[in-house]
Design goal:
The structure is a single chain. The protein has 128 residues and is mainly beta. The protein contains one helix and eleven strands, in the order βββαββββββββ. The strands form two sheets. Strands 2, 4, 5, 6, 9, 10 and 11 form a seven-stranded mixed beta sheet that branches. The protein is globular, with a radius of gyration of 14 Å.
C-alpha cells in the first residue's frame, strides 16, 4: 500500500521556521526516484495551491509567494521529502499536503501538475 505521511507542522510566530517531512512508504527507492513530488497548501476558504515541486532530476519550482523563503528537497535513501520554511508569514497559515505522481518531470510550475497521491496533511499556523 503506497502512502504519504506528513509530519513537522505546528504553530510558530511570524518570522519563524518549520521543517515539514513526508515519508513515502510502499515504494522502492528506484521507483520513488521517478516520482514528481511536491507540496500543496490550502488555507480556510481558499483553493488548494501548489507551493513547490521537485522532479526526478532534482529540478525545483516554487510559487512566487514563497520563493526565497522555502526549500524543497528529497532524500531518496529514506524515501522522504522535505520542506524547509523560513521567514514565515501569517498568510502561510494553511494545511500543507505532500503530493506525488509517477512522472519524471513536474512541468513548468509548482502547481502545474496533477498529483495522483496525497498525504493526509499537516497544519501550519503562523501567528503575527
Amino acid at each position: 500500500q503506497v502512502q504519504l505521511v506528513e509530519s513537522g507542522g505546528g504553530s510558530v510566530q511570524a518570522g519563524g521556521s518549520l521543517r515539514l517531512s513526508c515519508e513515502a512508504s510502499g515504494y522502492t527507492s528506484s521507483i520513488y526516484n521517478r516520482y514528481c513530488m511536491g507540496w500543496f497548501r490550502q488555507a480556510p476558504g481558499k483553493e488548494r495551491e501548489g507551493v513547490t515541486s521537485i522532479d526526478a532530476y532534482g529540478s525545483t519550482s516554487y510559487a512566487d509567494s514563497v520563493k526565497g523563503r522555502v526549500t524543497i528537497s528529497r532524500d531518496s535513501s529514506k524515501n522522504t521529502l522535505y520542506l524547509q520554511m523560513n521567514s514565515l508569514h501569517p498568510e502561510d497559515t494553511a494545511m500543507y499536503y505532500c503530493a506525488a505522481r509517477y512522472m519524471l518531470s513536474c512541468g513548468a510550475g509548482a502547481g502545474s501538475w496533477s498529483p495522483s497521491r496525497w498525504g493526509q496533511g499537516t497544519q501550519v499556523t503562523v501567528s503575527p
